[in-house]
């Protein structure tokens, strides 16, 4: 294991850019999840004949405990299936 050197402020300054980038990536992933889930809700509304309701739907609540690419791929697959049905 590497020994850390410098003050806590210096150590924090060293990792702050990486933390900022990770936070930005997380926010982008959350937006991508919300977008796909919104599209799924809209298509479900269209299929069920509740189009007027789907237009007024809130942004879906994204489960921030699972922002994995696997989960995102599952949502994309579900969206593609719904688009085929439509």
Task: Provide the domain count.
Answer: 1
Strand coverage percent? under 5%
Q: Please tell me what the overall shape is.
A: elongated
Discrete helix count = 3
In this structure, how is the largest beta sheet organized? none
User: What helical percentage do the residues reach?
Assistant: over 70%
Cα radius of gyration in angstroms: 20 Å
- Low-confidence parts: none
Mean pLDDT: 88
**How widely separated are the two ends?**
55 Å
Tally of strands: 0
* Helix-strand string: HHH
Derived from helix and strand composition plus strand pairing, the structural class reads: mainly alpha
Oligomer: single chain
List the topology elements.
Blueprint: H1 8-48, H2 51-54, H3 69-85
């Amino acid at each position: 294991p590497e020994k850390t050197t410098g003050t806590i402020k210096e150590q924090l300054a060293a990792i702050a850019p990486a933390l900022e980038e990770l936070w930005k990536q997380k926010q982008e992933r959350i937006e991508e999840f919300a977008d796909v889930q919104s599209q799924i809700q809209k298509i479900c509304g269209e299929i069920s004949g509740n189009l007027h309701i789907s237009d007024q739907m809130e942004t879906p609540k994204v489960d921030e405990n699972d922002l994995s690419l696997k989960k995102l791929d599952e949502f994309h697959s579900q969206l593609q299936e719904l688009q085929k049905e439509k």
